[in-house]
Write a structure and sequence with these properties.
7-stranded mixed sheet; Rossmann fold; 12 helices; Metallo-beta-lactamase, Chain A; single chain; about 400 residues; 2 domains
């Protein structure tokens, strides 16, 4: 089996791995300015997608811009997420270099889509492929690829601990080689229950004091996780931004969430914002939590809420995800100011961060790899892939970290 690393090697973003010059695993984008896409020309016979995040599906429609029409295989939620993200990219950047595809390309995606459930084997480009629940977001999958001689386990993004939205992965299928993500290979996550309790106590304190809490959250996975938390602790909340439609979509696929009834109750508990900026300004004066995009304060309804609450020390911004360097969220944490809609604003409101990560941490990754102690491991999707591969090798693993553009025969 030959693997070509077109993206996601020694980096987080634009994941893309070509198997045997015919089967493409993921085709994402790196959301920088300008965005970056997988390297090299690629013309696969089929595409298999691990899950519906921008760094794994963001460039996918571009594969259909020519004459080729490779089938795209994924779970039902991943299909819907990929189409939602593609249409959002078109809306924001269509017709510019920041968007490598057209509306026609997105329509073609729907024509070549083939959906599969977990543990249902199918054939793609002459390979037997099986999805296993990866515990990251609804529909996320480990991808087992068998070419008749070698079985490759592509982990995609995964989590070994339970979240409210999805259970942690328990799948450990037999494999001859593992291609493993390493996003948080040097991080130990705080216990999720402890994170929740600190978050809830902080939010309740602010509401009791008469303040408003803006909770910037990623639309996919994080928004729904926080709605489940708010419902469990009876915190009054609104939800705004793309997270509204994603919540509705996940409810249409109950078999891919941990507790469909809990998600239904959480949706009923939250109030969905249906109006424009006028309604948002009125909501910002209420003693409520507002779960809204974007998670890094780089756009979305947060552009209205943050200016409304920023001047009052009683109010709070509760960041719930990693803040990439150069984003307004990162600037806010480091400097107390953020550029919102082109204006640099000092923020007097309290700013806090909570680790609601949907990735396995250092111990989760090692726990997962314990099942593959005698199996070669290739490390990708991380900022310190080489260092982590060296740590694994020091502990007896046959481990390596391919570089961008490398071809590896296994």
């Amino acid at each position: 089996m030959e693997l070509q690393f077109l993206g996601g090697a020694r980096e987080v973003g634009r994941s893309a791995v070509l198997v045997n010059d015919s089967l493409l695993l993921d085709y994402g984008m790196l959301a920088e300015s300008p965005p970056q896409f997988p390297v090299g020309a690629v013309d696969p016979d089929a595409v298999v997608v691990s899950h519906g995040h921008l760094d794994h599906v963001g460039a996918l429609p571009a594969l259909l811009s020519g004459h080729a029409r490779p089938p795209i295989h994924w779970t039902p939620p991943t299909r819907e997420l990929a189409l939602t993200l593609a249409r959002d990219t078109l809306k924001l950047h269509g017709g510019t270099l920041r968007c490598p595809f057209t509306e026609t390309d997105v329509q073609r995606v729907t024509q070549v889509s083939e959906t599969h459930g977990y543990e249902e084997s199918f054939t793609a480009a002459g390979h037997e492929v099986t999805f296993f629940d990866a515990g990251h977001i609804p529909g996320s999958a480990h991808v087992l690829v068998d070419d008749g001689e070698t079985r490759l386990l592509y982990t995609g993004d995964f989590h070994t601990d339970d979240q409210r939205l999805v259970p942690g992965t328990t799948a450990r299928p037999d494999a001859d080689v593992v291609l493993c993500e390493s996003t948080y290979s040097d991080v130990e996550h705080e216990d999720r229950t402890t994170v929740e309790e600190r978050f809830v106590e902080s939010v309740e304190t602010t509401l009791w004091e008469g303040g408003t809490v803006v909770v910037p959250a990623f639309a996919i996975g994080r928004t729904q996780e926080l709605l489940l938390v708010c419902d469990a602790y009876d915190i009054p909340c609104y939800v705004d931004g793309m997270g509204k439609s994603i919540t509705e979509m996940f409810r249409r696929h109950p078999e891919f969430v941990r507790d469909a009834d809990a998600l239904r109750r959480a949706k009923s508990h939250a109030r969905f914002v249906s109006g424009g900026d006028g309604q948002r300004r009125r909501i910002a004066d209420q003693n409520v939590a507002i779960v809204t995009t974007s998670g890094m304060l780089s756009g979305g309804p947060a552009m209205t809420y943050v200016p409304e609450i920023r001047s009052h020390p009683t109010n709070k911004l509760a960041l719930t995800g990693y803040q990439v360097e150069g984003t307004p969220g990162r600037d806010l944490v480091e400097t107390g100011t953020a550029e919102i809609d082109g204006r640099v604003m000092p923020v007097s409101a309290q700013v806090e961060q909570y680790d609601f990560s949907a990735h396995a941490d250092r111990f989760g990754i090692r726990e997962f790899l314990d099942a593959y102690a005698d199996t070669p491991v290739l490390v990708n999707h991380g900022d310190r892939c080489v260092a982590f591969a060296e740590e694994l090798a020091a502990d007896g693993f046959d481990a390596a970290a391919p570089d961008l553009g490398d071809s590896v025969t296994i």
